[in-house]
Amino acid sequence: MERRRIGILGYDGVTAINLVGPLEAFANSFALGQGGQEIACYDPVIIGCASDQFSADSGVTFRAKFSTNDDLTLDTLIVPGGRGLLCEETSNRVAEWVKANAERTRRIASVCTGIYGLAPTGLLDGRRVTTHWQFAPEVATRFPKLRLEESAIVLKDGKFYTAAGATAGIDLALTLIAEDFGQETAVRVARKLLVYFSRDGGQEQYAEPAALDVSVLPQTGELNTARMEKLVLWIDKHLGEDLRLDVLAKRALLSKNEFIQQFTARFGVPPGLFIKNLRFNEARRRLMSGRNATEIARSLGFADPAYFIQEFRRRFGALPDDYQRRFGSSPAPANLETEDVVDELRELRPTTKRLEGYRRPRITSFTTGVRRQSCVSGS
User: Fold this and answer.
1) How far is CA 64 from the centre of its chain?
2) FRET pair for 102, CA 20 to 30 Å: which of 9, 133, 325, 334?
3) pLDDT tens digits, residue range 181-200?
4) Which residues are paired to 43 by β-bridges?
């Protein structure tokens, strides 16, 4: 079996885990021969961008096997993220080299802010991409031709792959290994590294719930802009009240149809979805502070706790009690009222057997993507 060469770019200021995570996954990828012996699937190499020695932003020093001056044939190229790529000189150098070698490279990928090395090439224009949720607003603004889906962990569009931050580089590597040598091989690697082969949910479960700020929402020339902004600020303070469309339209002094039209033009999404997003964003914040899930659901206008629990899991990849244990600042309280509902929902979790042939639906951001609608609309 011919080993596939994976090139991982290195530069001063790279984030070590963005580089080492994929490197370890590929280095631990073996196919089983007829006699049961392990055969290495890949030849992972580090390529120095400016020289054969560079330092990560954590201070770790790496020595590359090759440099960008060498004539290399790669199966796959990965650009890891790091503070160094926020420097225009470094990002331009990386972009020029990637563009020059793109045609003869089967796959090209980025991890986290590695997208700053790919986006300037123009090769990602019009393509679905992701990056770390913290950098998504700036990426969407700086590169408006990208179709940014900020909640995704890993995205593929053609020969290009993009991944979120930190350990998402391992998710990316497992995706590529599964494509090349099958899911069984990728699962063996995941077990060695003590990680999940496929995570539940997207980045939104990790992102910090942000307070509403109308100043960062897209600007439009629509009438009643100031009135709409005041209404949204009022909504944010009254999420547990009756927020039906006719009630809000009356408060905005508009007909129902005019209200829907002008609200959607101003904020990029219909008012019903906008309000639901705010409610679930606030639900995450309250769960993190230790509040009871049933109490949260009712205080935010969800009359049916079972609907709240099921919709929460659909959006964030975890039941409220699981989310609270992962991200809360205090132990999750007993939730006796919905205990039966939670047990029923747990039964719905897909088993390994059910996952055969299963394709997870596309994950998009619900709570933080509204202000980016103007950057990706029409793409």
Assistant:
1) 29
2) 133
3) 999 999 999 999 988 888 87
4) 5
